[in-house]
Amino acid sequence: MPSPFVLLQHVLPQHALTRLAGKLAACERPWLRDALIRRFAAAYDVDMSEAARGLGQFTSFNDFFTRELREGARPLADSAEFILSPADGAVSQLGSITGGRIFQAKGRDFTAAELLGHGADEAARFEGGSFITIYLSPKDYHRVHMPAAGALRSTAYVPGDLFSVNAATAEGVNRLFARNERLACLFDGPDGGFASVMVGAMIVAGIDTVWPHRFAGHGRAVMHEDFGVDAHDFVAGDEMGRFYLGSTVVLLFEPGKVAWRDGLKAGDPVRMGQAIGARLTR
């Protein structure tokens, strides 16, 4: 039976609470902004020694939450050999995409087609491939980076629920990552196609990208965008987007392209830029 925490999320006004949190997080009034930042940093033991700015140098809570790191805080593994972690966080699950399905938690999974929102043909490219799901806790650095070099081909913004995405909710809510609001980004890289899916959650005030886009958070309609050849080329480690409050990133790779690092398992902490898998077609 789901925990009381999970059951409560089914009855809470998820979107109304998230809109309220977004307004508070965007507020630039010093008395509110500074109180929110100080209390959050203390409650979650945020390591400000890694940040490029100090606690008193942010214009809003959102500015603090999406803080940039000081130079050199996240050295990158050799992207000629490895797939890089796209974010700080912890591995939720990883493995193979089998029968079009992605493992979520014991007794629960979801389909690649549901997650991506690009149709069955696009999802079929990942059959037999590899996935990894990385959970970003509130204390983590919340910018999302490229796990490999690639050119942005298309995106799908998919509106949806705003359940929490922590381990307890993943174990208690069916198809969690395929029913929450998300932005699925498809890239073409030197080793084939891959996807980076940014999944929203309770009180996540927004998802943003480094390229101009047409979607707005907490919308009601699916929105697809296609990008021209060479419109947005990235190298491994480049920033691609950010979360305004914590959430999850799901990576999908085509078959025969990636072998996850030996011993990497659910619950393991990861840092942006570290090697999480080997490239098999370099």
Sheet with most strands: 9 strands, antiparallel
**How many helix segments?**
8
Beginning-to-end CA distance, first to last residue: 46 Å
Helix content: 10-25%
Q: Number of folding domains? A: 2
Strand content: 25-35%
Q: What is the overall silhouette?
A: globular
If you average the pLDDT, what whole number results?
Answer: 89
List the helices and strands in order.
Answer: HHHHEEEEHHEEEHHEEEEEEEEEE
Describe this structure as you would to a colleague:
The chain is of the alpha+beta class and 282 residues long. Helices cover 21% and strands 30% of the residues. The protein has two domains: 4-65, no CATH class; 82-279. It has eight helices and 17 strands. Strands 2, 5, 7, 8, 9, 11, 12, 14 and 16 form a nine-stranded antiparallel β-sheet that branches. Strands 1-17-15 form a three-stranded antiparallel β-sheet, with no helix packed on it.
